[in-house]
Amino acid sequence: MSKRKKQKQNTEEEGPQILGRFSGNLKMGLVGISSCGKSLTYDVLSRKQVAKEEKQDLNMKKKKENQFEARCLLQDPRHDFLTNLYEPKKTTPTYLLVQDFDSFGESSSGFDNSMLTAIQSVDGFFHVVRAFSSRTIHHPLGSVDPVRDMEIVENELIQRDIQGIIKKIASLEKQLRNIKDLKKNEDLQMLKVFKKYLEEKNLPIRQGKWNNKEIFFLNTLALFSSKPVVYLINISVKDFKRKGNKHLRQIMEWIKKRTNEPIIPFCPVYEDELFYATEEEKEKEGFKTVIPKIISTGFTRLNLITYFTVGKDEVKSWKCRKGSNAPQAARVIHTSLEKTFIAAEVFHYNDIFELGSEQKVRKAGKFRREGKKYIVKDGDCIEFINNKTSTTKKKK
Ligand SMILES: Nc1nc2c(ncn2[C@@H]2O[C@H](COP(=O)(O)OP(=O)(O)OP(=O)(O)O)[C@@H](O)[C@H]2O)c(=O)[nH]1
Ligand SMILES: [Mg+2]
């Protein structure tokens, strides 16, 4: 058996797999019908919540063609604890990448072909749902009806997936007329199963139960409806303050019937207004921002986890995909670290939190040396030991 085949088989045997790209660089994208508040949400998620001292590092908003990308600070009390403990010269939290897209067409769902091409590159969606009424902000369909709007967006994504699958089926059938190829035939059968599921159930593909082989294949297809969603319900300031909105029950019922995904009611207008308020004013208003919750929910939905590197020079949070082994996690720091990986020296955040110092963690025998197969856990504090000489050799 070839080495590649063997590697593939091994991964397929390694327990249940998860949908989505295997990368530390995963992104959430904002979707929703026109004028539902996507761009305002993008603003409050990125620009506004970045801690002043980290502004330079984290607030890297990029605009390329019709899309915007921002690094949104992930607030993590564990990072703050480690910073207080080590008192490093520098402290660097991690972030969630979020993209917003210019509206291109006049279609009510906000999707036309160029928009769909743009959102293909993201790994998950913040689906912004308009549940606020406004005399001044025109609703493209003339009335506020969040369930109808969610159906429009979701149906659009499911229909696009079906169209894409039909094209792939046609192309494979054409190829298989002349040749016999077991792998291609297997792919064709799987495509037919996915198509049937989408057409008959009218549910997103991520809601189905798929075996490892199907998940591997789905990950190469990157269907729109395979990407995880966090529903952000855009409610008015008044509703946010009184913690109620007349559409919420219906919205929740609709989502729960389909996917059981996270639902976060929020008010970007209020978040925007109160960003500039003093702590005293915020307290008087009884204002509690939900932005950190939105960011951390997006982070978790993308199956990202955090590990830390700690020391007197720097305490830094890193993100990697759940299920990463130690060399894959090291790659997030620098690509060369994956190849030159020798070992990982690891202890868990919980141990240093309980025991109070790295010295005590060592004494308690909680400081471990792990090898290539070690699967990194959320909250691990890691030092990677690498073979620097092998990189130098390679370069020569
Ligand atoms: N009254 C009110 N206005 C809102 C609310 N949320 C957003 N808006 C306003 O609605 C308008 C449209 O918001 P955007 O954030 O541009 O919406 P969008 O989804 O990015 O719109 P497109 O990109 O054109 O699809 C802006 O003027 C916002 O200030 C809200 O909760 N209440
Ligand atoms: Mg916009």
UniProtKB/TrEMBL annotation:
Q: Which UniProt keywords apply?
A: Coiled coil, Membrane, Transmembrane, Transmembrane helix
The keyword Membrane is assigned to this record = yes
Q: Does the keyword rRNA processing apply?
A: no
Q: Which residues form a coiled coil?
A: 155-189
Highest taxon listed in the record's lineage = Eukaryota
Transmembrane feature ranges: 215-233
Q: PANTHER family annotated for this entry?
A: OBG GTPASE FAMILY (PTHR23305), OBG-LIKE ATPASE 1 (PTHR23305:SF11)
Q: What protein am I looking at?
A: Obg-like atpase 1
Q: Which organism is it from?
A: Anaeramoeba flamelloides
Q: What is the lineage of its organism?
A: Eukaryota, Metamonada, Anaeramoebidae, Anaeramoeba
